[in-house]
Amino acid sequence: MNRPSGPEYDGSFTPWLGVRDLHKSISWYSEKLGLEVAFLAEEAGWCELGIGAEHVFVGLYRMDSPGGTGGATLTFGVRDLDRERARLEELGVRFDGPTTAIPGLVSIATFRDLDNNPVMFSQPLRAMRH
User: Fold this and answer.
1) What residue spans of 19-113 are helical by DSSP H?
2) Which residues contact 59 (CB under 8 A, 6 or more apart)?
3) Which of 59, 119, 127, 129 has its CA 20 to 30 A from that of 107?
4) Is 123 in the same domain as 78?
5) Average pLDDT in the 93-120 region?
């Protein structure tokens, strides 16, 4: 079998977000999304939050001006989007608008973290493709 050219990935994946206050953001992601600190480098302003999947983390990096307007959106698949949305709304999280359904494919709902970084929940409306 021919292997496609490109990097030899090690199986880890850590998208990261710029945040103003590392500890407030750690608390937000822990309280709202149930993520747990897997690694913290206080002196570097860096944290990795485990999502429950092996070698997959959300990185938080302390920055003076994080921006929060990047093109990437952290998207978490959930089993019951309506329930999770209601739970977050009870915790004071505001969503960008109503839940959107793409018939036969997926339902999505987008919200923002403390630094305006976009975060999304998605729920498949058919069998998973992978």
Assistant:
1) 22-33, 81-90
2) 14, 15, 16, 17, 46, 47, 48, 49
3) 59
4) yes
5) 94
